[in-house]
C-alpha cells in the first residue's frame, strides 16, 4: 500500500504513533490512522446545526436539495434516525408551501413518501408553467392578428366584403357618388342632397334615378343604388371568419 501511495503518503505514515510496533504492519490499523488524518473529528453539534439550517433555495431543484441533505446527514451521527431526520428537514425546508401542506396531511409519512410528493409537486409546477407560456404565446398571436384592423364595406341585403385597413387608407378610388377620385371615407358628396332626385349622398351629375312608365301610365323614379364598397368603409376587427350583415 505504501509503495503505491507514493512519497507524500510515506511522509504522513512516518508521523503516525502506534500503540505497539506490530501495529505498523497491520493494514486495518494503518487505514484507520489514515482516515483519522484525512478526516479529522468534526463537531457533531455544529454539523447538526448546519443540517437543520438547510432549506431549499428559490428555484433550486428538489433533487439537488435532497442530495445536499443526504451529504450533510452523514456527519451528523443520526444512526438509525437518519431517514426520519432527512424526512423532517424536507418538510421544514421545502420551498413550496402547498407541498408542505400536502406533506403535513400525511399521518404516516416516510422518507420515500415525502420524496415522491415533492417530486410530483415540482413536476406539476413545471407543467403549469409550460401551459401558461404556451397560452401566453397563443394569446399574443391572437392579439397580433386582431390588431390588423380590417375595413369592412357593406350594402343592405348583400354579403360583406373585407379589405385591409391600411391598404384602404392609401388607395385612391373612382367614386360613383361624386364622380371624382379620392381616398376612402373622404367623399365630398357624403351628406349632400341631389338636386335631381332629392336623394342624399350623391351629386346630380352622378344621380342614379331613372324614369320609367309605371302602373296606369304614371311615371315613377327608380333609384338604383350602386356598389358603395369603394366609397364608404366601416372599421371592424375580424379574427376568424367573415360575418354576413343583412338588413
Element string (H = helix, E = strand): HHHHHHHHEEHEEEEE
Mean residue pLDDT: 76
Widest sheet: strand order?
A: 2-1-7
Helix content: 40-55%
* Number of helical stretches of at least 4 residues: 9
Sum up the overall morphology in one term.
Answer: rod-shaped
Strand content bin = 5-15%
The CA-CA distance between the termini, in Å, is 102 Å
Given helix and strand content, the structural type is mainly alpha
What does this structure look like?
There is one protein chain. With 247 residues, the chain is mainly α. It folds into three domains: 2-38, no CATH class; 44-142, no CATH class; 150-236, no CATH class. The protein is 43% helix and 10% strand. It has a three-stranded antiparallel beta sheet with strand order 2-1-7. The chain has a two-stranded antiparallel sheet with strand order 3-4. Strands 5-6 form a two-stranded antiparallel sheet. A hairpin with a 6-residue loop joins strand 3 and strand 4.
Amino acid at each position: 500500500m505504501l509503495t503505491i501511495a507514493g512519497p507524500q503518503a510515506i511522509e504522513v505514515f512516518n508521523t503516525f504513533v502506534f500503540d505497539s510496533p506490530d501495529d505498523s504492519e497491520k493494514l486495518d490499523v494503518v487505514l484507520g490512522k489514515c482516515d483519522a488524518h484525512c478526516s479529522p473529528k468534526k463537531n457533531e453539534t455544529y454539523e447538526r446545526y448546519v443540517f437543520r439550517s438547510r432549506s431549499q433555495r428559490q428555484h433550486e431543484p428538489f433533487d439537488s436539495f435532497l442530495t445536499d441533505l443526504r451529504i450533510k446527514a452523514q456527519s451528523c451521527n443520526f444512526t438509525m434516525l437518519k431517514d426520519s431526520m432527512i424526512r423532517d428537514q424536507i418538510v421544514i425546508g421545502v420551498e413550496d408551501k402547498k407541498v408542505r401542506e400536502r406533506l403535513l396531511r400525511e399521518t404516516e409519512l416516510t422518507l420515500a413518501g415525502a420524496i415522491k410528493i415533492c417530486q410530483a409537486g415540482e413536476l406539476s409546477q413545471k407543467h403549469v408553467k409550460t401551459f401558461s407560456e404556451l397560452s401566453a404565446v397563443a394569446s399574443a398571436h391572437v392579439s397580433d392578428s386582431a390588431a390588423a384592423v380590417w375595413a369592412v364595406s357593406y350594402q343592405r341585403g348583400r354579403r360583406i366584403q373585407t379589405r385591409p385597413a391600411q391598404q384602404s387608407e392609401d388607395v385612391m378610388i373612382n367614386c360613383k357618388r361624386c364622380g371624382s377620385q379620392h381616398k376612402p371615407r373622404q367623399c365630398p358628396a357624403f351628406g349632400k342632397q341631389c338636386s335631381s332626385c332629392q336623394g342624399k349622398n350623391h351629386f346630380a351629375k352622378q344621380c342614379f334615378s331613372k324614369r320609367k312608365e309605371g302602373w296606369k301610365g304614371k311615371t315613377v323614379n327608380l333609384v338604383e343604388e350602386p356598389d358603395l364598397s369603394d366609397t364608404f368603409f366601416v372599421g371592424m376587427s375580424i379574427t376568424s371568419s367573415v360575418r354576413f350583415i343583412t338588413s
